[in-house]
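S1.2 Input.
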Amino acid sequence: MKKPDLAPFKERFPLWGGDLQTIATALYRSKSVAPHDSERKTFKLADGDELFAMLDRPKKPKSRRPLVILIHGTPGSETSPYMIRMSLYLLDQGYRVLRLNLRGAGPSREFCGGQYYAGSSADLGELLALLPLKLPPDVTQDGVAAVGYSLGGAILLKYLGENGKRTPLCAAASVSAPIDLLGTCRSLMRFRNTLYHCDLLRRMKREATATGAILTDLERKNIRRSRNLFQYDDLFTAPRNKYAGAADYYAKCSAMNFLPTIEIPTLVLTSLDDPWVPGGAYSGYYWPSNKSLTVVPLLSPHGGHVGFHGVGGRQPWSDQAVARFLADRQARAKAPVSRAAAA
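S1.3 Output.
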């Protein structure tokens, strides 16, 4: 597949190194997409849990632009900094955007007994099936695309691999997705990542036990006594979702297992200096084996975790890459088919 026309990523002073790139993302504080309009949407799943989302509409919508679903990482929500920033960027280009809160995240928490995890691809499938019923026709008439960040990207890739051409999505992209769950767990538990790990585990526990969560006494006890991410998944995530343990959960839900069966145009972005997600899983995968996958550039040496704060402007390089990718897909969809190709 042709790669989007975009210069390689270059770090912006003084954000040198994966840690500063990662931390800088959290410093974006806006929670509004003004002057564009937003509307609350809810999607009731088959088991009764409800996913909340924010539908953002541009002041000046443009034709032939798909609705773009943004999927956050963990813990995260519709107001995560990268979600707001990317929505504004796409809205300014005339796209409609749906900022999704996964099961038990953000405002969905109070209305969900369950909790999202890396295997939550079925939830995404249910949501996509509900879109034509829940959204006005003009929102989805030009198709639907999806962009997943961190764990949201891993869930999206798993969903794509499970569904192949059956997905209603016309294009997709992942940014800093942990495609190897065991490798990511080990990376986060390294001594140099102690601050990241402690903060992440604390917020995951708080999210999992917040108002709305339906938990047994044993599950609450196991969440509280987990001292690291592996224990949390081994004692809570895995048994709750019918896996034998954390190792079994990681082996069966890692997105890298589903990459070979993705059949729609999908952009994959990552950096080799990501302090959370090790680059080995990416560099060890033979990307040309699946023509539906695009990696730009082959692997970025720098960028951190959902960072990519580069030279030439304040908009993250990853946002620009995804927008260029979507525009390229749009142009290809509009291009007339030659007689020779049709024959």
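S1.4 Remarks. The first strand starts at residue 37 and ends at 44.
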